[in-house]
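Dear Dr. H.,

I hope your travels went smoothly. While you were away I took the liberty of generating a structure for the chain from your last submission, since the lab meeting agenda had it listed for discussion. I wanted you to have the full record in hand beforehand rather than looking at slides cold. The sequence, exactly as received, is reproduced here:
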Amino acid sequence: MMTALMDKETFFEALEAARQPQHGGGHPFSRAFANGELTKGELGFWATQHFYYIDPIPQQFAHLFCRLPDLDARQHLLENLLGEEMPETPEKRHPDLLVKFAKACGLTEADVRDAEQLGNVTAGARAMRAWIWELVAFRNLAEACAGIMVALEGQLPTLYPKYVEALRKIGMTDDDLEFFIVHIEGDEEHAGIGLELTHRYATTPELQQQAIAAVRASVSVRWQLLDSVYSAIKEKQAA
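The corresponding predicted structure, in token form, is as follows:
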């Protein structure tokens, strides 16, 4: 275990390296998605699980906002929170954009929003949602910023362009794909801010190691979410 405090550049490299071994883009589900191998029904099933995971993100970000001691950090997170909730254009809320995509895949709004009551939420989706609550409510600020902004938001700018390309090939419009497009545009900046905030709050070697571990944990839990989705799809295909 490294005992010296890493300089900023070395720490950033360590955080980003921790994200790579289980980067979502390498998962068989993501490869099948990017290669156009999934049916619309299967894509809708993924959207349902992802919706369950992200639906409380605004409340989760609000919880983390209350814990941040620095004005500029709160302002950055508030911008992120407002981007999720879109108060001036509420129909553009990110969870609602995902519902729109699911409907383009042939699902109804109730299929997505009522998945819990319908018994259609996977264990992986539950674990992902619970892990974000743990980060924002109970883990230290370095872990929270690293585990959410670096580990998770940091994956999307390289992952979602491949999804969009595949979905356009099956006739989906940019309106259908708005959920993905807004994350491609916004999350690269969020990941950069996450690196800066993680560095700010990881003021000891121990905190740096905890932040790196939080990145590994987040990508691992997200990998398990994709496992649960892909396993359910494969089981249905084999039935």
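Two observations you may find useful: The mean pLDDT is 93. The chain has one domain: 14-238.

With kind regards,
E. W.
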